[in-house]
Design brief:
By secondary structure, the protein is an alpha/beta fold. It is built from four helices and five strands, in the order H-E-H-E-E-H-E-E-H. The strands form two sheets. It has a three-stranded parallel sheet, with helices on both faces. Helix 3 links the parallel strand 3 and strand 4. The radius of gyration is 13 Å and the shape is globular. The model has no long low-confidence stretch (mean pLDDT 93).
């Protein structure tokens, strides 16, 4: 539901550095009924910055900091390995997909 609601207002790009194949990722997205506009497979998280994206959702602490340093907004999905990252004007923490949606809407309206 969150992705469907966000997809009505925003383009959704799934950018992954996963070792899974595009077919596996596409299958997972379809199985979970996640609506998206584009799937992009990268080798390293720094390649994600080459896309024209305004708001990122990630759980990688280094990626979140690099995106923010490059003027991007980040919703950091809360995980044990990223809890040392503090919230800033550019980085907001979310603990659920509903919170992700709220943070994205907050960034978009500011």
């Amino acid at each position: 539901k969150v992705f469907a609601d966000l997809h009505k207002m925003f383009s959704i790009y799934v950018i992954t550095a996963s070792f899974a194949s595009n077919a596996q990722i596409t299958g997972l997205l379809e199985h979970n009924r996640i609506k998206y506009d584009k799937l992009i497979h990268v080798q390293h998280h720094t390649e994600k910055l080459s896309e024209e994206i305004n708001i990122y959702v990630d759980d990688n602490p280094r990626a979140a900091e690099e995106f923010a340093e490059n003027g991007k907004k980040v919703v950091l999905f809360d995980r044990p390995w990223n809890r040392d990252i503090k919230e800033t004007d550019s980085i907001k923490r979310a603990r659920s997909w509903k919170e992700v949606e709220m943070k994205i809407r907050g960034f978009a309206s500011s």
